[in-house]
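User: Look at the shape:
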Amino acid sequence: MVEDVNEKHMEAWTKIIQTSQPPVPNTPLTAWIDSYMLTKHSIAYKGDKIKAVVGYKLRKPAFSVENVQEIINAFKAEGVWPSGHE
């Protein structure tokens, strides 16, 4: 399954990178995924307790279109996001 996913997405990602104006051949972003990312991993800790102990606080506590667009805009400002492909 991973091979099929990578073949499909990497082909599209490569095309997007190459057709961007200007092209962004040196982007650190990739559509490639390894099998580890598709497997379930369990942790036996309470998230709230870990956050309290280490003082971790999410900068973006909710997944939203606005938050994703903000990330894309930051990538664009760095020159690593293909233009015209939002």
About this structure: The mean pLDDT is 84. Helices lie at 2-19, 47-54, 65-78. Residues 10 and 31 are 6 Å apart (CA to CA).
